[in-house]
Structure to design on (528 residues):
């Protein structure tokens, strides 16, 4: 490989990248700076009296680097383009299938190991002298939530004799005082440490990683200098903005395997809609904030409990571009729908319904969740999703309802009808007119309104008495009265919105939950 040459993207355009290398090793930085300089890119060195991050080798290479980036950001508040590098070594004769020796501990291993010790150990293992040296880089790009990982390696062998050459004054990383002095790269006759800089470029593991990093930075430099015809500036929506005059926004809700994702994908491929899955946004939030859980249900529960039941909607509203038609699928909470409606009042809620049998058959055909094999497992999954609060009252909050019981072609026709707003022309699609006043007359709303009035748990007779007292006289003829027995029947069917308290020797009591309050707010905000 010839010595790297200057790349025009780093020197010609008006905008240039500022890149820093966080390392406590001066020799590493000097080598990196030389490679970067040959390519026309200036590299800055973060100097510190201590290592810029802790090296916990038990984490493994990837996790060690990801945590290093996070630790540097937390400690120094760095919000610039920077990278870290870590070196590892595998000596084949000493490594096992599940353990690389010395692995990430190459510095410590080299400090306590003499060439004679290693030579004797290799000869005891059949004199297999094969080895691989690796360089792994983690790049932090401001605004990019994931860390960019880059890998370079060189295979070769451990030399048969100890090094006798002197350290290079000009290129201090080419030295007999590191494993470079013991290592002969594949295809070479010299040890890596005794090569000239030009010779080493072809074989050096770290140079290979640096050049891959520079390739990536060249792409970033090109993007940084794009002409105005290659990008658009998204107009950020403010809370004071009125209704959108641009693209349509559909919020698609429904149970598992009802057809939410299919609708989003079809709207993207056949109607050029932008498709956002709430579950993907939730996973992004979890990764960004370091939240983990054993499965998707508990991850959603943990994120919503920590960040608020409307956190996913807040993220989506923030990224929403009114210039594009958009479909959002998979909201779980009433608060998510209510937050989106309050900020984007032109949005439409589409509720997709399908029978349990139909949905279970689709699940089996799809085969995505291995842990759900029986109908009972499927029903339990439904109950867990209902617990977030939205699905039990989805019909009340919807603008459009789709009965998805037919073939895929039937469903595509239904989707076309929704997007073209031709609801009456296709079977199974109905336009649900908002009826906030009617919903406020229902037993569910009136019982929840009573619970909202009280500070703590109250009994069914107290709730019935309050609803009787608060029913306007003008409505007495067409608003059905609620007895204490009816209160219990109504509230026990919505455990997602209220908490039932059973105490021995005491009457059953109920207390409103945040989802119940969100439902009241949603109904009150609906216009007839």
């Amino acid at each position: 490989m010839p010595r790297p040459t200057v790349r025009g993207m780093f020197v010609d355009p008006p905008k240039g990248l500022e890149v820093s290398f966080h390392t406590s090793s001066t020799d590493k930085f000097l080598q990196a700076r030389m490679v970067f300089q040959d390519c026309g890119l200036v590299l800055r060195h973060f100097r510190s009296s201590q290592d810029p991050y802790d090296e916990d080798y038990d984490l493994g290479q990837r996790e060690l680097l990801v945590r290093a980036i996070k630790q540097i950001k937390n400690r120094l508040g760095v919000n610039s383009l920077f990278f870290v590098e870590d070196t590892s070594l595998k000596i084949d004769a000493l490594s096992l299938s599940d353990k690389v020796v010395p692995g990430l501990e190459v510095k410590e291993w080299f400090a306590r190991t003499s060439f004679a010790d290693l030579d004797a150990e290799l000869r005891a293992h059949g004199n297999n002298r094969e080895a691989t040296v690796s360089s792994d880089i983690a790049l932090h790009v401001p605004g990019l939530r994931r860390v960019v990982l880059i890998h370079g390696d060189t295979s070769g062998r451990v030399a048969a004799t100890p090094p006798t050459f002197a350290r290079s004054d000009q290129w201090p990383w080419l030295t007999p005082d590191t494993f470079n002095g013991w290592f002969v790269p594949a295809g070479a006759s010299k040890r890596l440490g005794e090569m000239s800089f030009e010779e080493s470029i072809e074989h050096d593991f770290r140079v290979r990683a640096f050049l891959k990093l520079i390739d990536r930075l060249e792409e970033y430099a090109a993007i940084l200098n794009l002409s105005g015809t290659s990008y658009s500036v998204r107009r950020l929506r403010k809370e004071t903005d009125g209704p959108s005059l641009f693209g349509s926004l559909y919020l698609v809700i429904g149970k598992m395997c009802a057809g939410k994702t299919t609708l989003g994908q079809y709207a993207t491929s056949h109607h050029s809609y932008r498709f956002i899955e709430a579950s993907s946004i939730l996973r992004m939030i979890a990764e960004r904030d370091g939240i983990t859980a054993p499965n998707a249900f508990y991850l959603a529960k943990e994120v919503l409990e920590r960040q608020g039941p409307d956190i996913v909607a807040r993220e989506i509203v923030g990224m929403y571009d009114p210039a594009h038609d958009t479909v959002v699928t998979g909201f779980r909470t009433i608060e998510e729908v209510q937050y989106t409606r309050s900020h984007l009042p032109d949005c439409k809620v589409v509720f997709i319904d399908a029978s349990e049998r139909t949905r279970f058959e689709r699940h089996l055909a799809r085969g995505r969740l291995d842990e759900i094999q029986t109908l009972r497992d499927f029903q339990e999954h439904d109950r867990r999703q209902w617990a977030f609060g939205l699905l039990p009252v989805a019909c009340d909050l919807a603008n459009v309802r789709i009965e998805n019981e037919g073939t895929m072609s039937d469903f595509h026709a239904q989707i076309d009808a929704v997007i073209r707003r031709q609801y009456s022309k296709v079977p199974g699609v109905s336009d649900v007119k908002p009826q906030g006043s009617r919903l406020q007359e229902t037993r569910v709303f009136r019982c929840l309104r009573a619970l909202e009035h009280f500070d703590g748990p109250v009994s069914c007779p107290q709730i019935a008495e309050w609803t009787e007292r608060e029913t306007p006289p003008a409505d007495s003829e067409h608003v059905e009265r609620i007895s204490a027995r009816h209160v219990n029947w109504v509230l026990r069917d919505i455990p997602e919105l209220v908490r039932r308290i059973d105490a021995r020797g005491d009457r059953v009591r109920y207390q409103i939950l945040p989802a119940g309050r969100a439902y009241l707010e949603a109904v009150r905000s609906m216009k007839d």
User: Anything to note?
Assistant: The two ends are 73 Å apart (CA to CA).
